Amino acid sequence: MAGARAVEEILARGGAEQFSITMFGDEPYGNYNRIMLSHVLSGEESDADIFLNPLSWYQDNGITLHAGVRADRIDRFAKHVFSSDGRVTPYDTLIIATGSRSHLPPLDGLHTPGGSVKQGVFGFRTIDDTRKMAAHAQQEHHRYAVVIGGGLLGLEAAAGLRSFGLGVDVVHSGGHLMSAQMGPDGGAVLRRSVEALGIGVLTGCRTTAVLGRDRVTGVSLRGRPDIACDMVVVAAGIRPNVDLAVLSGLPVERAIVVDDSLRVQDEDDIYAVGECVQHRGEVYGLVAPLWEQAVVLANHVTGTDTGAAYLGSRTATKLKVAGVEVASMGLHGPELETDEHIVFSEPSRGVFKSIVVRDNKMVGATLLGDSRKVAYLTQAFDRGLPLPEERLGLMFDLGTPGEETGVAELDGEAQVCNCNGVSKKDLVGAVKSGCTSVSGAMDATRAGKGCGSCKLLVRQVVEWAADGAVEEDPAAGYYVPGIPLDKQALMAEVRARGLRSVSAVFQALAPGGAEDAKSKMGLASLLKMMLGGRYIDERDARFINDRVHANIQRDGTFSVVPQMKGGVTSVQQLRRIADVAEKHNVPLIKLTGGQRIDLLGIRKEDLPQVWADLDMPSGYAYGKSFRTVKTCVGKDFCRYGTGDSTKLGIEIESRFQGLEAPAKLKLAVSGCPRNCAESLVKDVGVVAVEGGRWEIYVGGAAGAHIRKGDLLATVDDPEEVKVLTGRFMQYYREQANWLERTYAFVPRVGIEHLRAVIVQDAEGIAGRLDEAVQASVDSYVDPWQERDDPRTPGQFRTSLPLTVLPQVPVR
Ligand SMILES: Cc1cc2nc3c(=O)[nH]c(=O)nc-3n(C[C@H](O)[C@H](O)[C@H](O)COP(=O)(O)OP(=O)(O)OC[C@H]3O[C@@H](n4cnc5c(N)ncnc54)[C@H](O)[C@@H]3O)c2cc1C
Ligand code: SF4
To answer: Residue with the nearest Cα to atom 44 of ligand 1?
Structure first.
């Protein structure tokens, strides 16, 4: 479905002139509406009625269709596709849209000894599956079917088979039906409706084997009697079709990894779209996200809008399952103590409604049997529309807001830009701080910089807030955009007013006291630097990495890097890391560039346990803070070494661990000018030189920017290295712009100035800088201790689990 839709979008952008298009599909048809297969099974539709594009469409648009031909391999270098008919087809641009297939779990007896699927066992994915199921069900002597899986597909299959007069049991391992889409109460009401169709339901029940020698005769269940049956439909989930991509050397994790333009990671001319795609860690199993992907892909492939970006989808599902209307979005039930949960249940009519409200915003809804309010609720969910005070109005028509809610009435909290989470209040705040042009407000808030679908609304809000006026944005010199002060003035105000939290700063110093999401992280860092232990921590002011003390990865899992001071480890530490990696099935163990061991692929909810099992402090591989000191082996072992670099590196790391900074700080100590620890390209790099002396370099970098550090001082004593390193870092913390790395800061203020202030104490502030950094050192607490005491109930839970994702595969 996604492949043909992408081609439609490409044609709509004049693609027929740009490309000669060839399509391969291993099903022997053109494209059809897979969603309608349940209706074909139940006999409501014939399979001829579900084709989306007739064969003439391919001809009319000059598309060569190879139906029933499988693409076997791609030669990415020669740019050829090898297909099952022996053909070799060249391409300039390639789109992979191989979708998913039914997942057959490892059950005894599913296959014959010859390896083929046993007669009477079916998946439910294609026209052919559907036809075969219908034919099998209609055989005279076939009376009973078992469906494995009580999700959307399983229930659809069960209802279809029931319509052939078969007795049907659904066996579901979850505690209630459609457990991915709803909570147990909704599941109980759905169960009644399904049972009313004459379908048996067994929940919390696992199938262990399919019985019968050559053909199905029944199923075995764990802890319950066997069920005799003539056919088994396996609807236990889907798996992306990634064989083609894997064979062709493309990056595959849970599915084919693509970027925001739907381009396959690290490929120039290969795109992928649909269920075979993993985008920002998410794999989607419903069509709405695929349509959004197809639009972005077409914009890039045709060059119509090369800035287009797909940033993921929030899925609100509206379905008719086994004749029952089901709508589901966001949370199934309350998560926080403060969540409001409004529930209406009328099981005798098969009606169930559940709505979860957080901070006056709708964050989840389940509707069963009556989805009349679904349009309004979907909008409220997507756009954060104001909710009626009388919550019952969310469920029933009591004159509550319709779809057309004007800008003026829109609640301040209403989310205008979903992609970047910008509310009306944020935009109004930006306008009040001077961004009275639409683009200025967009720059300040990032509203409209995602999929772009909200741009009209952003314009309306800005125009309304600015009352038509348009001005140049004066915020360029502010430390953070939401507060009209430069860093020094801001720090002076914070000190003078005794402000200790981000919200207090907004209240006192932001125009109209307006909070600005974009300013929060910078302010939090500044306050923590200034106040150490007296800082009042507000978690919403942190980056996700800082909230959970781990580095979020492309696929939404986290990487855990325990502290390994100076890159030195021990047998005990290695053994513990190995044990933890084994216990938690860590998919990837990787040595970092900073001489530590990285455990990659940890789920958010597993972080506290992983830290507990490691029982080692955090290595700060995630923070805008002091991170690591790389060292060489130094004089004890190396025949060139003149200084004990390992010892000094460990001492520096012990002293400054976790120190908050405007950007990350990476350090190194080398035992001689051969510089094996690459000290010249570090934020602070130390090199032992002849005569037991040490050189200190600052402002080096070897990342996206490359810069050799400037020599700050040469000193006689390792203790002096520690003093000057701390003093430099404190000065940088106080003077640098938010997110300004030392490689930009040092040349900006000048090495002579830094030498004068830090080494010669020309401004008489050296003592104060030393004291300030000491105060921060004294207030250090290992953040991984939060494992025993989460700061918020949801700190280590995935937020809004809209789709249940399979695990990252173990490499
Ligand atoms: C019975 C049923 C009911 C559903 N109901 C709903 C619903 O109500 N709402 C909803 O949103 N979604 C529903 N879905 C899911 C929806 O159908 C899918 O999300 C959608 O079809 C995915 O589109 P796709 O293009 O990624 O994959 P597909 O539609 O599966 O297309 C991929 C095609 O690529 C082919 N292919 C694979 N490998 C190769 C190869 N190497 N060479 C050539 N061809 C290859 C496959 O055979 C397939 O024809 C339902 C699915 C089923 C099966
Ligand atoms: S930097 Fe010098 S002391 Fe350190 S490992 Fe290299 S050669 Fe040896």
So the answer is: 25
Q: How far apart are CA 670 and CA 676, in angstroms?
A: 6
β-pair partners for 697: 685, 711
Q: How far is the CA of 291 from the centre of ligand 1 (A)?
A: 13
Q: What is the enclosing helix (H) or strand (E) of 601?
A: strand 597-602
The ligand minimizing its distance to the Cα of 97 is 1
Which residue's CA is the closest to the ligand 1 atom numbered 50?
A: 35
Q: Which ligand is nearest to the CA of 277?
A: 1
458 close to 410: Cβ distance less than 8 angstroms:
no
* φ, ψ for residue 509, nearest 5 deg: -120, -15
More confident call, 491 vs 289: 491
In angstroms, how far is the first alpha carbon of the chain from the final one? Answer: 30
- Residue that has been written with the tokens 């910089």 in this structure: 449
Which range among 125-129, 346-350, 602-606, 794-798 shows the weakest confidence by mean pLDDT?
A: 794-798
Separation of alpha carbons 413 and 431, rounded Å: 16
Ligand 2 centroid, distance to 550 Cα (angstroms): 32
Calpha distance 26→33 (Å, rounded): 16
* Residue 480 DSSP label: B
Task: Tell me if 26 sits within 8 A of 276, measured CB to CB.
Answer: no
Contact 196, 350 (CB under 8 A): yes
pLDDT-wise least confident of 127-131, 444-448, 694-698: 444-448
Alpha-carbon distance 389 to 400, whole Å? 10
Among 395, 421, 408, 422, which Cα is nearest to 341's?
395
CA distance 41 to 160: 5
Which residue is associated with the tokens 């530490």? 573
Q: Is the CB of 326 under 6 A from ligand 1?
A: no
Amino acid residing at 191: R
- Ligand 2 within 6 A of CB of 675: yes
Q: Which residues contact 488 (CB under 8 A, 6 or more apart)?
A: none
Place of tokens 């439910």: 124
- 8-state DSSP, 386: P
Dihedrals φ, ψ of 272, to 5°? -145, 150
CA angle 263, 264, 265 (to 5 degrees): 110
52 lines ligand 1 (CB under 6 A): no
423 - beta bridge partners?
A: 415
Using DSSP's 3-state secondary structure scheme, residue 729 falls into helix
The reported pLDDT for the residue numbered 439 is 76
Q: Which residues pair with 669 in a beta bridge?
A: 631, 686
Spatial contact of 526 and 490, defined as CB atoms under 8 Å apart: yes
Q: Which of 65, 2, 60 is nearest to 28 (CA)?
A: 65
The minimum-distance atom of ligand 1 relative to the CA of 36 is 3
Which of 72, 65, 79, 92 has the alpha carbon at shortest distance from 3?
65
Instruction: Specify the residue for token string 């889907």.
Output: 238
Q: What is the torsion angle, in degrees rounded to the nearest 10, for the CA atoms of residue 540, residue 543, residue 549 and residue 551?
A: 150
Could you say which ligand is closest to the alpha carbon of residue 272?
1
What's the 3-state SS for 16-50? HHHCCCEEEECCCCCCECHHHHHHHHCCCCCHHHH
Q: Is the pLDDT of residue 807 over 60?
A: no
More confident residue, 270 or 392: 270
pTM value?
A: 0.54
CA 667 to CA 677: how far, in whole Å?
Answer: 9
Distance CA 432, CA 506 (A): 13
Separation of CA 689 and ligand 2 centre (Å): 11
Kindly report the protein residue whose alpha carbon is nearest to atom 53 of ligand 1: 125
Instruction: Count other C-beta atoms under 10 Å from residue 162's C-beta.
Output: 20
Identity (one letter) of the amino acid at 312? G
Our CA angle for 714, 717, 718, nearest 5°, is 100
The DSSP string of 144-172 is EEEEE--SHHHHHHHHHHHTTT-EEEEE-
